[in-house]
Write a structure and sequence with these properties.
The complex is a heterodimer. Chain A is 65% helix and 7% strand. By secondary structure, chain A is of the alpha/beta class. Chain B has a five-stranded antiparallel β-sheet with strand order 4-3-2-1-5. The chains are: A alpha/beta, B alpha+beta. β10 of chain A pairs antiparallel with β4 of chain B, so a sheet runs across the interface. Chain B: This is Iron transporter FeoA.
Chain lengths: 712, 97
């Protein structure tokens, strides 16, 4: 198909208006997700070919307003002003017209080529709401196209309109809403002043600038402040503020908003007929249970439990299967490669490195299917409502709860799940609590240590205590961050509880696929690199003396005249011993030794130091490294390792406790750090955070060790 | 009086909105401007935040945010017959709606 012209369309609208479903319905598979420059807000871009046009669609973040208070609003505004899309399609929810049209009015003020896509027409008809489209078009000046993105209805009509508008076949009238007399007077005065500044006049729409100045818009303030005319503008603004206070006993910002509401309310009165709601709706009945004083919390915990079960119970066999598949791959590939270094690099480095990235996919996909189901159904906002009080006490948001609880399974999907939080500071604080939630990979370490040094009944208590300690430190960290560096810009809890909807299967799957791709592409490369790096560190340099000893001893054992089983056992023991020696000789081993003076006060020796270094690849590696280093070779099952540890002189109950605390608190695995960097958007906070967790881990382990020495 | 002082089922009209700029803006965007009528639907199980209904929407806000909204109470909860509140009261107090 030949394409003649490209048209850029921006989709703007309230949260939950169905922008994303429209976007998906229009662009299908031709999408890519990036971030808007400078902020970690997703930018969804896609295209479609329609009637010899290539239409690029940009899905702007959902906003209620175009003020510069949240990054979403700033992004939306900047995109419309700076990128100048050919057509702005304002997606409005037909069943919730009054609030949605508030944004339409603000887009109207920007005097862009605006089309209104009246979404959810199926629901509008179902509810018996009558909307007089002609009259509404008259009032707003733009064309209104009824659609139903869910059922893919009216999409062609919308696209035809987009083409007509961009070709100039439809003129979009730039209707102006008239504000109160005093506001209008001030707008005229200020825009007249602004038009004197030629550069400013050419760059922007003066009336809009004037309105924004009256609305106390700090972005426009800094924009205008650069020009000499500012002195006069400032005087005019002060005068307007005084007038508003005198005549309306309020400020211009409130007055302008009230006028917008009045305009929209008037339009609603004229154009929309709703049947009288006599009975409580289905949504109301569900809320009576779900938000009930008594049942609210149990329902909430049930839902969270279900999500957790879905992600990890269903996910772990899949994870094991992937693990097995990669193991199988290594086994099939290994014989075809020359023995020695090359084989080791491919099999132990690359394949297991890739495996360690891919193995998280089932969890990510399942969690995000669950979360997007909750989000799209409308329960997510209610969950936040139910638990917000607890979270708010630590400076977090109600929505922080689900990512935090997911952290008990695995930090990676949990950190990615913080995207549901709108405010950056809430998101950062939540991200930084997650690694303290004991993830599944830390469990083998606890099982080994608690099992080896405590009687069964006591071991369970110890593990429970460790989990509690993690939660406490996590919440404390959140509180600390929110009362110091992240003090500003908490997301206000003022939000809407959307009516319950049945999410479509495609949208749920779509979200999950998106996250999976994002993880593999962005975090995957980083994680892979780090895993390989740690592998290199624990394999290089190799000691030639040990290699020679291995060859010599192997040859010697081969010549012995003993039973083959005995021979094999001896060989195995030898290999394990050499392997342990090599690990000690490697970079990781040396850094373990280098670390010894630092970790001595915690009761650790250099062997534990090595395990802590390799444990950065993944926490469960701590166990296998301890296995290698205590040279128990291939038979690294936990019972024999725990016996060895018990008989080792450095290990005691105090050391075990101290090590558990340290593993709980110190730097999360490289995969989590990679995802963290990706979500935070910069290295600096991540490095700072790593330093922080190391300090906390050290202090906590030190205290644990000393107390345990005293009491045990 | 303040919105935060209302009880479940109370209806009121907004008379002024004061809060820090971002919160105030969000409140106003969601329809809480002077003259808007609202009804307190419920408090969260732990007593905070508050759910209100306003212009056909269900909104939630924390108590400290609700403190910024000055309201005029319209009528007390008891005198208003609404299907599902009535139902609950009947159980609680043995009264008939």
């Amino acid at each position: 198909m030949s394409t003649h012209r490209t048209i850029t369309v921006a989709l703007a609208g309230n949260p939950n208006a169905g922008k994303s479903s429209l976007f998906n319905a229009l662009t299908g598979a031709h999408q890519r997700v990036g971030n808007f420059p400078g902020v970690t807000i997703e930018k969804h871009e896609g295209f479609l070919d329609y009637k010899n046009y290539r239409i690029t669609v940009v899905d702007l973040p959902g906003t209620y307003s175009l003020t510069p208070y949240s990054p979403e609003e700033i992004v939306t505004r900047r995109f419309i002003i700076d990128e100048k899309p050919d057509v702005v399609v304002n997606v409005v929810e037909g069943t919730n017209l009054e609030r949605n049209l508030m944004l339409t009015v603000q887009l109207m003020e920007m005097e862009v080529d605006l089309l209104v896509a009246l979404n959810m027409m199926d629901e509008v008809e179902e509810k018996g709401i009558a909307i007089d489209l002609d009259q509404l078009e008259q009032l707003f000046g733009s064309h209104i196209v009824p659609i139903s993105a869910r059922n893919r209805k009216g999409l062609d009509d919308l696209l035809d309109h987009v083409i007509s508008v961009s070709e100039g076949c439809i003129e979009i009238r730039k209707n102006k809403i008239t504000f109160s007399a005093e506001v209008e007077k001030a707008i005229d005065k200020i825009s007249a002043l602004l038009s004197r500044e030629r550069e400013l006049d050419a760059a922007a729409n003066n009336r809009w600038l004037a309105i924004k100045l009256l609305e106390n818009d700090r972005e426009v303030y800094t924009q205008v402040q650069k020009y000499p005319v500012w002195v006069k503008v400032e005087l005019a603004l002060q005068e307007a503020i005084k007038e508003c206070a005198r005549l309306h006993s309020t400020d211009p910002e409130a007055l302008i908003t009230e006028d917008r509401h009045a305009f929209v309310h008037g339009a609603m009165q004229e154009c929309v007929r709703k049947p009288k709601a006599t009975r409580a709706s289905v949504s109301d009945y569900i809320d009576m249970v779900v938000l009930n004083r008594v049942l609210g919390l149990p329902v909430f915990f049930l839902v969270v439990w279900a999500i957790f079960q879905l992600t990890f119970t269903l996910g772990s066999p899949l994870m094991d299967a992937l693990d097995y598949a990669f193991g199988l791959l290594s086994e099939t590939v290994a014989p075809h490669l020359p023995a020695g270094m090359v084989r080791s690099i491919f099999v132990d480095g690359v394949i297991s490195g890739v495996g360690s990235v891919v193995v998280f996919l089932p969890n990510i996909v399942l969690l995000f299917m669950g979360l997007s189901f909750l989000e799209a159904s409308g329960y997510m906002a209610r969950a936040a409502f139910v638990i917000d009080k607890v979270m708010h006490r630590f400076g977090l948001h109600g929505k922080s709860f689900i990512p935090m609880i997911t952290g008990f399974g695995c930090s990676i999907p949990a950190i990615m799940a913080t995207r549901t939080l709108k405010s950056r500071s809430d998101r950062l604080a939540t991200i930084m609590t997650i690694p303290f939630m004991s993830c599944g990979a830390k469990l083998p370490v606890y099982v080994l240590l608690a099992g080896a040094f405590f009687p069964p009944a006591m071991a369970a208590n110890v593990m429970f205590g460790i989990y509690l300690l993690g939660i406490a430190v996590g919440l404390w960290t959140a509180w600390l961050l929110k009362s110091t560096v992240l003090k500003s810009d908490s997301e206000p809890f003022v939000m809407e509880l959307p009516p319950y909807r049945w999410p479509t299967f495609t949208s749920v799957v779509f979200q999950a696929r998106m996250k999976a791709v994002m993880y593999l592409k962005k975090a995957g490369t980083l994680i892979l690199g780090a895993v390989i790096l740690i592998w290199v560190a624990s394999n290089f340099p190799r000691s030639a003396a040990l290699e020679a000893e291995l060859a010599r001893e192997t040859a010697r054992i081969e010549t012995l005249t003993v039973a083959p089983e005995l021979k094999a056992e001896r060989l195995q023991k030898l290999e394990a011993r050499i392997e342990a020696g090599q690990l000690e000789y490697s970079l990781a081993g040396r850094s373990g030794k280098l670390l010894e003076p630092l970790i001595r006060p915690l009761g650790f020796d250099w062997k534990i130091g090595i395990a802590l270094v390799t444990g950065l690849a993944a926490k469960e590696v701590v166990v296998s490294t301890l296995g290698t280093i205590y040279s128990i070779g291939q038979v690294a099952d936990e019972t024999s390792l725990s016996e060895i540890l018990r008989s080792d002189s450095t290990f005691s109950q105090a050391t075990a406790l101290s090590l558990m605390v340290f593993v709980l608190l110190y730097i999360p695995c490289v995969a989590a750090v990679g995802v963290m960097k990706k979500e935070v958007g910069a290295w600096k906070p991540v490095l700072f955070y790593s330093a922080y967790v190391l300090t906390v881990a050290w202090i906590a382990s030190f205290i644990t060790y000393r107390l345990a020495l005293m009491w045990m | 009086m303040k919105l935060s002082e209302l009880k479940t089922g109370d209806r009121a009209e907004v008379t002024a909105v004061t809060a820090e700029p971002a919160v105030r803006r969000r409140l106003m965007d969601l329809g809480l401007v002077r003259g808007t009528e609202l009804e307190v639907l419920r408090f969260a199980p732990l007593g905070d935040p508050i759910e209100i209904s306003c212009k056909g929407l269900l909104l939630t806000l924390r108590r400290n945010e609700a403190e910024g909204i000055t309201v005029n109470q319209l009528e007390a909860a008891e005198s208003r017959p609404v299907a599902w509140h009535g139902l609950r009261k009947r159980h609680r107090f043995g009264k008939r709606a």
